[in-house]
């Protein structure tokens, strides 16, 4: 791998990180990464009707109630954020 290849890969990665929120960056904490993954999962469940219907059937709830529950879980998917120590 040459230095120009490494620079090209890093610039592409920085472009993706600037364009898409969920791809992360160097200063991303573990909690923020987990929140992004959980929110993406819940958004996928709500957006795909067959998956939503499967969850509704498995939990013996209506599809509308499951959609509401998933949207409520998106607010704090991993609980309250931990306290940070600013350096």
TrEMBL record:
Gene Ontology cellular-component terms listed: precatalytic spliceosome; U2 snRNP
Transmembrane segments: none
GO BP: any one term: mRNA splicing, via spliceosome
Classification via InterPro entries: SF3b5/RDS3-10, Splicing_factor_3B_subunit_5
Domain of life: Eukaryota
Family in the record: Belongs to the SF3B5 family.
Name recorded for this polypeptide: Splicing factor subunit
Organism per entry: Rosa chinensis (China rose)
Phylogenetic classification of the source organism: Eukaryota, Viridiplantae, Streptophyta, Embryophyta, Tracheophyta
């Amino acid at each position: 791998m040459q230095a120009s290849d490494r620079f090209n890969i890093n610039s592409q990665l920085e472009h993706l990180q600037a364009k898409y929120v969920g791809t992360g960056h160097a200063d991303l904490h573990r909690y923020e990464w987990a929140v992004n993954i959980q929110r993406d999962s819940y958004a996928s469940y709500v957006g795909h009707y067959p998956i939503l219907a499967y969850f509704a059937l498995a939990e013996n709830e209506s599809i509308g109630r499951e959609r509401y529950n998933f949207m409520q879980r998106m607010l704090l998917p991993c609980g309250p954020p931990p306290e940070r120590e600013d350096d």
